[in-house]
Amino acid sequence: MDLAGKTAVVTGAASGIGAAVATELASRGVSVVVGDLDEAGAQSTAATIHDAGGSAAALRADASDVADIEALIALAEREFTPVDIYVANAGVIGKPGLGTESDWDVILDVNLRAHIRAARLLVPGWQARGFGYFVSVASAAGLLTQLGAAGYAVSKHAAVGFAEWLAITYGDDGIGVSCVCPLGVETPLLQTIRGIDEPQAKLSTASIEQSAKVISAADVATVTVDAIRDGQFLVLPHAELLEMYRRKGGDYDRWIVGMRRYQRTLRSH
């Protein structure tokens, strides 16, 4: 895909991966609508893009709210062109352990239903145009798991599954999909997890930081935008994740036993 002249919406783009992806897209000629609950942060990302000579607009938006998604899409059409690329990046870690009913509602809303709601609004128009691109920023937790956080592990598995379904169902209609699955990334989300003084949260932090090198959001943004350009589905910013995923699929029972052993090791430190 020739990115120049396209229009994108990026959710959760006040900081972290979202801000980095928005900035990277803009550097390649994409007009970007920056959405986030943190209005000041969204405006700051847009200002950074403007200062670098790019085109951006910002809006306070809850990525899981249908009216707010509609507002992001409308802003893109008003300021630039109809949305070509939608980056569903906003995410939350959720509560440690099994969580409560309300905890599950929150994490499924943000990490999964936000993607579904955006697709419902965008796919019919993309089908009519014969083009569109959906980016699901999931996690390595969606391919492996997340120790200490059931809601995060399950919602990210579901996000990967939804991205797969979109790619299969609408690929022949000209709609592309990328699913981004990093291991540890230095973001405010990771900083939040580090700050939770609770055994399961500490387990989550240790597993993230010890699984592989913690990389920058800019590293993730570069490979993500390359994947959009190339039409690549599975995006693995950590190359070693592919072998981890293969080992899981190669012997599922052995993988579970190994993960339990790894969990015991982390808890003993």
From TrEMBL:
Leader sequence residues: none
Keywords carried by this UniProt record: Oxidoreductase
GO MF, one example: oxidoreductase activity, acting on the CH-OH group of donors, NAD or NADP as acceptor
Highest taxon of source: Bacteria
Pfam families, A to Z: adh_short
Similarity comment: family membership: Belongs to the short-chain dehydrogenases/reductases (SDR) family.
Protein name according to UniProt: Cis-2,3-dihydrobiphenyl-2,3-diol dehydrogenase [Amycolicicoccus subflavus DQS3-9A1]
Lineage: Bacteria, Bacillati, Actinomycetota, Actinomycetes, Mycobacteriales
